[in-house]
UniProtKB/TrEMBL annotation, chain A:
Residues 90-285, 633-827 form the ATP-grasp domain. This is Orotidine-5'-phosphate decarboxylase. Pathway: Pyrimidine metabolism; UMP biosynthesis via de novo pathway; UMP from orotate: step 2/2. Residues 906-988, 1000-1031 are annotated as: Disordered. The lineage of its organism: Bacteria, Bacillati, Actinomycetota, Actinomycetes, Micrococcales. SMART domains: CPSase_L_D3 (SM01096), OMPdecase (SM00934). Keywords: Amino-acid biosynthesis, Arginine biosynthesis, ATP-binding, Decarboxylase, Ligase, Lyase, Nucleotide-binding, Pyrimidine biosynthesis, Repeat.
TrEMBL record, chain B:
Keywords: Glutamine amidotransferase. This is carbamoyl-phosphate synthase (glutamine-hydrolyzing). It catalyses: hydrogencarbonate + L-glutamine + 2 ATP + H2O = carbamoyl phosphate + L-glutamate + 2 ADP + phosphate + 2 H(+). Residues 2-180 form the Glutamine amidotransferase domain.
Length: 1326, 190
């Protein structure tokens, strides 16, 4: 099993999960190289969402699957297309006798306008083949239509947009189906959308099972669903079909299907206990449903339809507060960033639990104050927005009738009635003389929290809780078992309910409760879940019974088999305390882990401690000391550490005073926030006033919640450290260097691990500072510290004694299981113990070997999803407030490649061309319009750049970054923060926004890629094609890559052999002949020759083992020509191409020795891996040259025979020894190689491919293991298919040299040409 | 009996005559029906000797037969097998059944507390002398007999509810199978 995914934050990319794991961008090029390397039998694309499906289609269309004999399983390409191509799908639905919305496909704007006249406004616009409904929505007017169709044509890879009659307001349903090879088809789950059609299902409140359908209606959906999955031909696996039903007449329309496991499948799996993805994978490899056991019962088969004796409600979590300009109206484009799910015995219970699971102010129903005006509330609820359900509840509370609410919202009357019921129960609670057992029981049956009851009664939450406990009223825990109790469940997957008997089995083990991180939101995503899951695994291995509490269905922690017990519960103090109580009934509860679940879990620590629950690891008081400014300052003082000058203010006046004292710009942030909520860089008092205006509504600043004001460090490098501390010993997990300068939230900035520009001195300082902080706070477990280095001074920005979002990245990049180790430390293990038992590597993250690969983390940002009401893309300027929703990782042997991979994975590739604006640039220069940038200048060696003791950091940052950016000619990320987020910078941001959405040129190329099947080659240009890094279960994760240092250690022959095994035997000539330069559109100058060389190097990287620049074509331009050649050589050194300098030097004595120094010595700018030489003065004349090469681990190719007619005379001349000159040279080389070289020799021969070797008296049989440079292929007459005939047993050591035949493909075709030639050579040698 | 059973039979061209369970063999013969259908009960199959004898008579005369639920239990008895009360009855609309004829799973609607006692594998000899018989369907949850098929006489039955309502429609095709059986036996006149 080989897994490809560039996301480091997910458990699945842990090396333990697959036989081989590639943290690589999912692009055709990368996938092909992995296929070549791993030779898999099949590719399974139906579990990785739309990204995976699209990649599979691309692989298939490019013929890559066929070429390597790899099968696509799970779904055939035709089936994917039938499901995703809207027109095909509609025809198929109609064939099955079901109905579809009337629609047309438009390819251009005029067509769209004409169709709109037919369908009438409003109508739905949906671009084909985009994920998450991107770009779809309603057009109410021709103007809106034009805008949306324009965008849609742009974002659809096939330039198609579907226009459709509006079915807004209809009831919406989904079925999750599974089918196996024997055509057994079952419906796993029905899901009903609370919000009617018009809101993306990901943004809807959804309910499982469907509650407002009769059996007849449901069976009809089921019949249609099964018929469609068969017609589409989803061979095996899961599939999701969406339906709309007209509430007026019951007309059923099939909206769409996803022939793959989707977001809804994940929800359905958690809702039913039926593991859809797991079963889908088994079906894909040929199992039938009846052959697979139900995971929960372990005795019954998976060929059944789960029955629910409970109700599941999922609610979306939005992050509009992060995008103040964005339109908050919910449409068919998904805008939510996460979700929470809750389970209850009835709808009201599940609904109220789910709303409080969102952990967001105002997300739950309330009965505070006066509800407001009925008409106003009704008007508000007519527009679907975040929190509409609360508006509906308030409208009903204000006296609106259920009919009025239905008219306004089209929410099914049954649901409205349920909210009416909740309001009625609230009235009962509020008006009761006393809170009797019966009233409390009723309130709890309908999901009221202690907090809500407290609010209704005007009491404190804990008073209500005490009263409830006094009444003896506590929840019991029921089980999610797929079969409603028909068969015993083997998996303890529980939810609370105020029912009668508990189903929690007693246990006498030592238990640890792990608090999860709740719904995904910006600043708190699956990275935290990763840590929770690791803790669960590690503690389970250490003999504890692990108990997980979480309410996020998108996580691994809520898989029923991750922990020993799972409680699917809201992460509120009430719900957690009840689980603690239930689990305390048996066994020994050792404690609760709060430091891994982000702010959600951390926020519960004090309440739990107050209730007498043991908190594992860092104590709540210690956690406070890191958050509380005064306490933290003391800790820094004791450690002799500096923080940027700072102060706190609780209102505008005090904040301004602080800011003026320490000087602008200042960084302001409210205390106790995660993800940089409300964090900004402020440049003046006016802007500070504006800041206070904007955050006023959020009530995040005030007495007890001070605003932290820090001096903002301009032009600083930010460093993130994750570390473990056991009370005595510090273990550094990883030191990450941000690629953006300080001021961008760490979650949004990309970072590199190990740091590429810190010297040992800095690393030691960072380590010491981290230790001082860990001691000062009293950390037991994980600690994350952010530092900045400005002008050589180390500042501490902040410290968080908890898991950070970089834990998974560090774990993957260095193979240090931080969260596992942290959880063990929390239950008493020491760092030393963990190193001794092998959980932690001996060397910690501050001691990374120089030859370790480089990992780059890049944030994935959701700006594209958000638009203002006017339809503009929202501001995409990055700031100290985090906005990213995910991350990817690129890993490779050096920084440029790793960075390129991270960009490819995040954004689909680096832009090409001359769009460079440097990322680091003095601030005063930032506002300049981006002028044309210089073309790629010389690439510098890593060796010159750092990782050396005492290197000067400042210089090295600049050099290194410039190197990256120039080398790739890119400008990729959004702009840095500048003066506020204000209108004066409007023009700058518009440019930023446009770039962000997508560069139209690139997009066109992408579309062509999809249509013309040659996309892979085109898209491949300029993007890294380095080697996929593979994490193996049986190998240490610390991969050994080629040393980044330039000093060559292995002999040339050995390196050549390795390069052959990786990339085949094609030697790509770099011959910038003037006529070729002309063909390439380059000037016949040194500059032209340099560009030519750089492009060939770029094109050959990853496809050929070696390039051969023809020195004469550079030499002809004199010193400028040599400078150009040096640039080309430097560029090639940055890749893993070997370079063979073709100058055919020949002379005697010290002259020849000097040539050796020129081409081989470590400090020569002309140094190459090997060079050609002539030896017609006798091989002895070349001895010095060869010796220099050998000493430096380099190689020499001695000319023995070329095919040129005029050379034959000399070559076939008979020596005194009786052999020909050519044969004599061959003998000399063989003699030179044999004693010292193992495997391939380092001294080789040049033997023309069209030379009659026998005529020259050369026996190819003797040449095995001698490198042979064989020019003459392609334009000069020899064919690749001749290699075996010409060289026989020695074929394995031939460098098949071709230049003109490849280079004549021109700059756009050269990469493809090399790839093809390389493939042919390999095929001919196979 | 359930209306949907009558509806499905009528939809397939049957003229359906509903008679009480107390009908005698002579009265049945007098109707001159092309085929016989036993509905879903309820009742204890072990206590329904008269209906078993009536069915045996019809089977001997070669009358095509289809039974559902209780009808399956009575066919079982008529063919000479016993019946027994299940420790846990099969209830609900999500019961997976293996159809040996098609080699696929059907999700069925079930509501039975009794079952036919017969081995689910291989071809059996009818203890009552009706030739070869096989268990055509069985439960994937607990291997209980869910259908019988006589191989030498035109008779079959299922323990579950192909007429569903409530429940899935996976097994509706059994009514077509009955129609074909009757046609092949009696000619196209049906």
């Amino acid at each position: 099993m080989i897994l490809v995914n560039p996301n480091p934050a997910t458990i699945m990319t842990d090396p333990d999960f697959a036989d081989a794991t590639y943290i690589e961008p999912i692009t055709s090029e990368v996938l092909e190289s992995i296929i070549v390397k791993e030779r898999p039998d099949a590719v399974l694309p139906t579990l990785g969402g739309q990204t995976a499906l699209n990649a599979a289609i691309a692989l298939d269309e490019a013929g890559i699957l066929a070429k390597h004999g790899v099968e696509l399983i799970g779904a055939k390409v035709e089936a994917i297309q039938r499901g995703e191509d809207r027109q095909m799908f509609k025809e198929l639905v109609i064939e099955s006798g079901a109905d579809v919305a009337r629609s047309h496909i438009a390819h251009h704007l005029d067509e769209a306008l004409a169709f709109a006249d037919d369908l009438g406004y409003p109508l739905v616009v949906r671009p084909s083949f985009t994920m998450g409904g991107l770009g779809s929505g309603f057009a109410h007017t021709p103007e809106e239509l034009l805008r949306m169709v324009g965008d849609g044509l742009h974002s659809s890879p096939t330039s198609e947009v579907l226009l459709e009659e509006s079915i807004t307001g209809w009831k919406e349903y989904e079925l999750e189906l599974m089918r196996d090879t024997a055509d057994n088809t079952v419906v796993i789950c029905s899901i009903e959308n609370f919000d009617p059609v018009g809101v993306h299902t990901g943004d809807s409140i959804t309910v499982a099972p469907a509650l407002t359908l009769t059996d007849r209606e449901y069976q009809k959906l089921r019949d249609i669903g099964i018929d469609i999955i068969r017609r589409v031909g989803v061979d095996t696996g899961g599939c999701n079909i969406q339906f709309a039903i007209d509430p007026a007449d019951g007309r059923i329309i099939v909206i769409e299907m996803n022939p793959r496991v989707s977001r809804s499948s994940a929800l359905a799996s958690k809702a039913t206990g039926f593991p859809i993805a797991k079963i889908a994978a088994k079906l894909a490899i040929g199992y039938r449903l009846d052959e697979i056991k139900n995971d929960i019962t372990k005795v019954t088969p998976a060929s059944f339809e789960p029955t629910l004796d409970y109700v599941v409600v999922k609610v979306p979590r939005f992050a509009f507060e992060k995008f103040p300009a964005a339109d908050t109206t919910l449409t068919t484009t998904m805008k939510s960033v996460g979700e929470a799910m809750a389970i209850g015995r009835n709808f009201t219970q599940a609904l109220q639990k789910s709303l409080r699971s969102l952990e967001k102010r105002g997300s739950s129903f309330h009965w505070e104050g006066r509800p407001g005006d009925v008409d106003e509330l009704l008007a508000l609820s007519a527009i679907p927005t975040d929190g509409r359900i609360v508006t509906v509840q308030q409208a009903l509370r204000a006296g609106a009738t259920a009919e009025q609410v239905f008219e306004a919202t089209k929410i099914d009357p049954w649901y409205i009635d349920q909210i009416v019921l909740i309001n009625e129960v609230a009235d009962t609670v509020k008006n009761a003389d006393e809170l009797s057992f019966e009233i409390m029981q009723e309130a709890k049956d309908h999901g009221f929290s202690d907090a809500q009851i407290a609010q209704l009664r005007g009491r404190l939450e804990h008073d209500i809780r005490d009263h409830r406990h006094y009444l003896g009223l506590r929840p019991v825990y029921k089980t999610v078992d797929t079969c409603a109790g028909e068969f015993p469940a083997q998996t303890p997957y529980h939810y609370s309910s105020y029912d009668f008997e508990t189903e929690v089995a007693p246990s006498d083990r030592r238990k640890v409760i792990i608090l999860g991180s709740g719904p995904n939101r910006i600043g708190q995503g699956v990275e935290f879940d990763y840590s929770c899951v690791h803790a669960s695994f590690a503690l389970s291995d250490a003999g504890f019974e692990t108990i997980m509490i979480n309410c996020n269905p998108e996580t691994v922690s809520t898989d029923y088999d991750t922990s020993d017990r799972l409680y699917f519960e809201p992460l509120t103090l009430e719900d957690v305390l009840e689980v603690v109580h239930a689990e305390s009934a048996s066994g020994e509860l050792v404690g609760v882990v709060v430091q891994l679940g982000g702010q959600t879990a951390l926020g519960l620590a004090k309440g739990l401690e107050a209730a007498g629950v043991p908190i594992l690891g860092t104590t709540p008081d210690a956690i406070d000391s890191a958050e509380e400014r005064g306490l933290f300052s003391k800790i820094l003082e004791q450690g002799g550490l500096l923080a940027p000058r700072n102060g706190t203010g609780t209102d505008y006046a005090s904040a301004v005073a602080v800011a003026e004292e320490i000087g602008y710009p200042v960084l302001v942030r409210p205390s106790y926030v995660l993800g940089g909520r409300g964090m900004e860089i402020v440049y003046s008092s006016e802007l500070l006033a504006d800041y206070f205006d904007r955050v006023r509504d959020q009530a995040i600043i005030g007495p007890g919640q001070p605003l932290l004001v820090d001096r903002f460090l301009d032009d600083a490098v930010e460093i993130d450290v994750d570390a473990l501390y056991d009370g005595t010993e510090l273990y550094v997990g990883g030191i990450m260097e941000h690629i953006e300068e300080a001021g961008i939230h760490s979650g949004d900035s990309s970072c590199t691990l190990p740091p590429v520009s810190l010297g040992k001195g800095e690393i030691d300082r960072v380590r010491e500072a981290t230790l001082a902080i860990a001691e000062g706070i009293g950390v037991r477990g994980l600690l994350n510290v952010q530092f900045a280095i400005a002008a050589g001074v180390l500042y501490v920005l902040e410290a968080n004694p908890r898991a950070s979002r970089t834990v998974p990245f560090v774990s993957k990049a260095l193979g240090i299981p931080l969260a596992k180790a942290a959880s063990r430390i929390m239950v008493g293990a020491t760092v030393r113990d963990l190193v001794a038992e092998g959980l932690l590597p001996e060397l910690d993250g501050s001691d990374v070997p120089l030859d370790s690969p480089i990992s780059v983390k890049e944030a994935v940002l959701p700006f594209k999803r958000f638009r203002t009401k006017e339809g503009q893309v929202v501001d995409s300027v990055l700031s100290p407030e985090m906005r990213s929703t995910g991350e990817v990782m690129g890993i490779d042997r050096d920084f440029p490649r790793a960075f390129a991979k991270s960009q490819t994975a995040a954004y689909g590739g680096l832009p090409l061309g001359r769009g460079l604006r440097e990322r680091r640039r003095p601030r005063q220069a930032r506002y300049r319009p981006a002028g044309p940038a210089p073309p790629a200048t010389r690439l510098r060696d890593h060796r010159d750049l750092g990782n050396r003791d005492g290197a000067d950091p400042q210089r090295h940052h600049d050099q290194d970054r410039r190197q990256v950016l120039r080398g790739r000619r890119i400008r990729r990320r959004p702009d840095q923060p500048r003066r506020g987020r204000h209108r004066d910078q409007h023009s700058v941001r518009v440019v930023g926004s446009c770039r962000r959405v997508r560069d139209p040129c690139r997009d066109r190329r992408r579309r062509q890629g999809a249509v013309h099947h040659d996309g892979a080659a085109r898209r491949g240009r300029g993007v890294d094609r380095g080697h996929p890094h593979r994490l193996r279960r049986d190998e240490p994760t610390r991969l050994c890559a080629r040393a980044r240092s330039e000093a060559v250690t292995a002999a040339f022959g050995t390196r050549l052999e390795a390069a052959f095994s990786r990339y085949g035997q094609l030697c790509v000539g770099i011959d910038p002949h003037p006529y070729l330069l002309g063909e390439w559109g380059l000037p016949a100058t040194a500059a032209g020759a340099r560009d030519f060389g750089l492009r060939v190097v770029e094109a050959a990287t990853g496809h050929a083992p070696i390039v051969k620049p023809q020195v004469a074509f550079y030499e002809r331009y004199g010193s400028a020509g040599f400078a150009a050649l040096e640039d080309v050589l430097a560029a090639a050194r940055e890749t893993d191409l070997l370079v063979l300098g073709d100058a055919k030097r020949g002379d005697i004595g010290t002259t020849m020795d000097s040539y050796g120094d020129a081409w081989f010595s470590d400090d020569s700018p002309l140094r190459v891996d090997a060079a050609t030489a002539v030896a017609y003065q006798g091989l002895g004349a070349d001895a010095g040259f060869i010796a220099t090469a050998r000493a430096a681990g380099r190689g020499v190719f001695v000319l023995a025979a070329t095919s040129n007619r005029e050379a034959r005379l000399t070559q076939t001349a008979i020596l005194q020894t009786g052999s020909t000159v050519a044969a004599g040279i061959v003998e000399g080389v063989l003699a030179d190689n044999s004693p010292s070289d193992q495997g391939m020799g380092s001294v080789g021969l040049v033997l023309g491919a069209t030379v009659d070797l026998a005529d020259h008296g050369i026996d190819v049989g003797t040449l095995r293991s001698t490198p042979i440079l064989a020019p003459g292929f392609g334009a000069q007459g020899a064919q690749f298919s001749d290699i075996r005939r010409l060289f026989g047993a020695a074929s394995g050591s031939v460098l098949v040299s071709a230049s003109r035949s490849i280079l004549s493909a021109g700059p756009s075709g050269v990469a493809e040409s090399i790839r093809r030639a390389s493939g042919e050579v390999t095929a001919c040698l196979a | 009996m359930k209306t949907s059973t009558l509806r499905y039979l009528a939809q397939r061209g049957f003229d359906v005559i509903v008679v009480p369970q107390s009908i005698s063999a002579d009265e049945l013969r007098a109707i001159g029906a092309d085929a016989l259908f036993y509905s879903n009960g309820p009742g204890d199959p072990a206590a329904s000797d008269a209906q078993v004898e009536l069915l045996q008579g019809a089977l001997r005369e070669g009358t095509p037969f289809f039974g559902i639920c209780f009808g399956n239990q009575l066919l079982g008895r008529a063919l000479g097998f016993g019946t027994y009360k299940l420790p846990f009855g099969h209830r609900g609309i999500n019961q997976p059944v293996w159809d040996k004829t098609t080699g696929t799973v059907e999700i069925t609607s079930q509501n039975h507390g009794f079952a036919v006692d017969a081995p689910v594998d291989g071809v059996l000899d009818s203890p009552a002398g009706f030739g070869r018989v096989e268990v055509s369907h069985f439960s994937l949850n607990d291997n209980v007999v869910e259908g019988l098929r006589a191989l030498d006489i035109p008779a079959f039955s299922v323990q579950y509810h192909p007429e569903a309502a409530a429940g899935p429609h996976d097994s509706k095709h059994l009514f077509d199978r009955f129609r074909e059986l009757v046609i092949s036996r009696n000619g196209a006149s049906a």
